[in-house]
Amino acid sequence: MAITPVASHSQTQSSVALGKAAGNTPVAAASMPTEAPASGPVDTVTLSVEAQFRMSGVTKLSVTAESLAQAAAAAKTLPGLDADAERFTPEAMAAHAEWRESHTDYKSKVRDLVDQTFGLSADRNGWAAGGAALTAIKNLAEKNGLIEPKMPPAVANMLQTVGESMWTDKSGGTTGMFDIAFLPNGAEKGGNLRILFDGGRKPSADTSLVDLKTGGTNARAALSNIRASALGAALDSVGGWTPGGAANAYAITNGTDGRGGVFGMVIANGVDEEARERSANILRTIQGLIP
Fold first, then answer.
1. CA–CA distance from 131 to each of 32, 188, 234 (Å)?
2. Among 80, 76, 197, residue whose Cα is nearest residue 130
3. Residue 111's closest CA among 126, 94, 93?
4. Measured in whole angstroms, how far is the alpha carbon of residue 115 from the centre of its chain?
5. Average pLDDT, the chain
6. What is the pLDDT of residues 140-177, one digit of tens each?
7. pLDDT confidence band for 56 (50 / 70 / 90)
8. How far apart are CA 212 and CA 208, in angstroms?
9. In a 3-state reduction of DSSP, which class is residue 79?
10. What pLDDT does 46 receive?
11. All residues at 6 or more sequence positions from 131 whose CB lies less than 8 Å from its CB, including other chains
12. Parallel, antiparallel, or unpaired for β 42-46 and 25-31?
């Protein structure tokens, strides 16, 4: 504690300010109301950071990176305060801000690349992917030089996580799902397309779509094929589909006669034309990105 005699005195309201004084020197100063003596010098008391934490009459607090570091140091000595506050250092918070900015930029570039690859519009389409489809998109990004920024160790320690990734726990497996949303556009109604596939079944040069709602021979054979495969389990995991439902569905098969092996299916809500014209090519592109 430093005690410095001065020749003047003024009464102020009790306050604590943690910040910088003139000359950019970090300070932690407190002034308390006192009665002015009749004559003689007044003692000005500069309190330690720990003492400031113990004060009960705090009415004002301004926080800077320096003061946060001081508070974290003081917190370790006081019962009941979070001793883990030391993780939130100015360096860790600066690294977190920098990582978030670079990660947001990375995700934006991946979205743009997917839109470009599959002929989607940023204004009208949204998309989501899971399982092997997300693996395909990750491979697409890396093929085009987009590498996800790794979370710095100091940031992972601060957030108590092993690291954050847009691929973790969402990609992998042999089956995949790729959803495309279509917003209304003038006279065109909106809707959505859901493409499911089995990565273990590859498309041939020629493919065809089988309308599963018709109930014909090819439709029954294709639906039976789907139900008995990993594709059927993937279908059940996203809510299933029945011929009596509102959505239309198509099996994507190898060959031109609709009798070849089924390697995918598409469920269409309000966008049947998109399903018929684009789903097979989209799925062929996705499959081509999976080893």
1. 63, 31, 10
2. 197
3. 126
4. 18
5. 76
6. 999 999 999 998 888 888 888 777 788 865 666 789 99
7. very low
8. 12
9. coil
10. 54
11. 170, 171, 172, 173, 175, 176, 177, 234
12. unpaired
What Å distances lie between residue 166 and 14, 97, 137, 146, 230, CA to CA?
Answer: 49, 17, 11, 13, 25
- pTM beyond 0.90, yes or no: no
Total residue length of the chain: 291
Determine the distance from the C-alpha atom of residue 72 to the mean position of all C-alpha atoms in its chain, rounded to a whole number: 29
Q: Residue 224 is encoded by which pair of tokens?
A: 């039976």
Give the CA dihedral 233, 237, 239, 242, nearest 10 degrees.
0
Q: Which of 2, 89, 106, 103 is nearest to 44 (CA)?
A: 2
Distances (CA, A) of 58 to 17, 51, 74, 77, 81: 9, 12, 16, 19, 17
Question: What tokens does 202 get?
Answer: 């590859």
Burial of 283 (0-12, 13-18, 19+ CB in 10 A): buried
In tens, the pLDDT along 113-129 reads 999 999 999 889 999 99
Dihedral over alpha carbons 125, 130, 134, 135 (to 10 degrees): -160
Calculate ∠ Cα 135-140-146, nearest 5°. Answer: 110
**Is 230 a residue whose pLDDT tops 60?**
yes
Contact between residue 177 and residue 195 where contact means Cβ atoms under 8 Å apart: yes
Which of 33, 30, 62 is CA-nearest to residue 46? 30
Residues 242-265 have pLDDT tens digits of 888 889 999 999 887 777 789 999
Tens digits of per-residue pLDDT, 190-209? 899 999 999 888 888 888 89
